[in-house]
Amino acid sequence: MKSTLQCCFLLALCGLCPLISWAQVWPENAINLVANSDGRPVVADVKYWPDPDGLNPEQVIERGRFRTVGSDKFSFYAKKHWYSLRLSNPSDSAVHYFLATGLPSTPLLKAYWVDGGTVVEHFSSLASDPFAARPLVYPLLFIPVKLPAYSSKKLLIEHQSLANYPLALRVVSAEVLQEKMSFFTLVRGIVFGALFVFFILFVAQACSTPSSALIYYCCYIAGLILLVGQVFGYNFTYLWPTSGNFNQLFTPLITGITYSFYYLFSAHLFNLREQFNTLYRVTILLAVLAFLLAVANVALDVFWLLAALALLGLPVPIVIAVWARRKQLTSANLFLAGSILHCSLSYLLALECLGVHLGYSYYLFSLLSAGQILDLGLFSTALLRQASHLRKALYDQLEQRVSDAETLASAEKERAMMLASRQAEALSLATATHDLNQPLAAIRFALALVDDQKNTGAKEHIVKTLNYTEELLKSMTKHGKDDYEHARQQVAAQQVFVQVQKRQSELFKQKGLAFRIHMGVAEFECMPVILQRIVDNLLVNAARYTSRGGVLLSVRRRAGAVLVQVWDTGSGMTPAQVERFKQPFTQENSQSLQGFGLGLFIVKTLAEKAGYSLSIRSELGRGSCVSVLLPQHAAKSSHL
Length: 640
Fold this sequence. Notes:
Strand content: 15-25%
Shape: rod-shaped
Largest sheet: 7 strands, mixed
Helix content: 55-70%
Number of helices: 17
Structural class: alpha+beta
């Protein structure tokens, strides 16, 4: 019985020996790989030290003053960052897990196994390494970790980051890694899809109705797409997988350029240049500085200055939004909400980059991604609402211009009809006086036959009466002739077109175009106000769509009419375009930043009201000729 108890005791002691030995080597702060392999953060058990001198691992072991991550929050400058953690495997089999860093790439990342004073390099990722050199071909960086059964090891991580951005360490198994990367790919795909939808939508908008704010906003979205691709690691994975050094330089470059376009978009959204020039200049200065620092960082390490510029400059769009809100401008509230969100997210990123580690770094990129989509949604809605408001105001203004043109044409037409009526009256009066002269002449002839010796007094009285009557009829005829000639509006060609030349010559001079006038008619009948309005519109259109060569204005006589033509050496039009451009608010896309698209429509309206004939001949790539035929009355004033 006694021997049996002794055997049982020995067996129990043998079974407890591994546990006793394990308890002797198990540190209280060791990270249990098996228990934490589901991807939970292990920050609480990681020690951190910002190294201001750039020491090697052996020196760090001796001189490093490690503390828990987060206890040293303000490390504004460090040449290297060191992380110390102890990993343990309490299971009875070897494990192979991965340490997720939370970063797509970094200038330097090395891991060392430390056993007493012995340091063995375990993992290395350098800035110059191609993407294929990674142990795992994922967009994010992972450090592989292998531990035998019942073992514990100390891992020392050496890290050089972009402006002190910290590692967000997590332990994942191969199965969990596959699951999380699948989810990662799905979420990132949704983010990229949303960004591309915004980009395509606003590029189409900018092509149809371009404006400075729209163009800068499209550039801003394009910058965001490249920046998000860089943060997610897709640029290095797919665009330049063999250019590791360039990949490190691209992050600050695209960051600065994106901020530059953000400032430019903010400056032009509310026409700040015209309404608040001082704030406009400050915003443009921020944009220029952000761009210059981004480019300078390619050769110099000035990312610190870029991050500091973001801290100082990000409130400026908020100031713009508050100003626009006080002015009660359209979409000011939406832009204010988007600016505050953008500023908050950027401050979180800038604070991490400046070394103020608040413990949210692992979630920061996901938070930024979601925030950018919401941010773009606010900015896009603000921009679309403002564009809709401006378009409505513009169309109201243009419709008023069309209405004014039609009113002018109607007034001139009524005036012409009144003049024509006066012509008819004057002609009728002249005809009547002419007819009355016939019986008076007969009476005078009859009086000549009367004997001068008889009824002398009566005869003299009749002669005087006839003389007075004839003088009265001549006066009435002369008055009718004057009214007739005045009503016909005979004008000197020099008088009409010299004024046009004075108004338009500066426009052609600014564009470097030749402008000539050929007048083959000395005077002609027209409505001067309408004709000058027509010619002005034709000349402005010709100058707008002509980049080289010149414009000719010619006036020639045709059978029963005068032909006014404007020739240009511009881009020309197809027949379909000619008909389309006769409609209001129609322009060529390439020139749509100029004018309102009303030129030919106003010409067409005025010509119809005045009774003129309008025709257009054009050849694509060679130029156009617009002709206006002015009918001339056959009757001459001399006939009276």
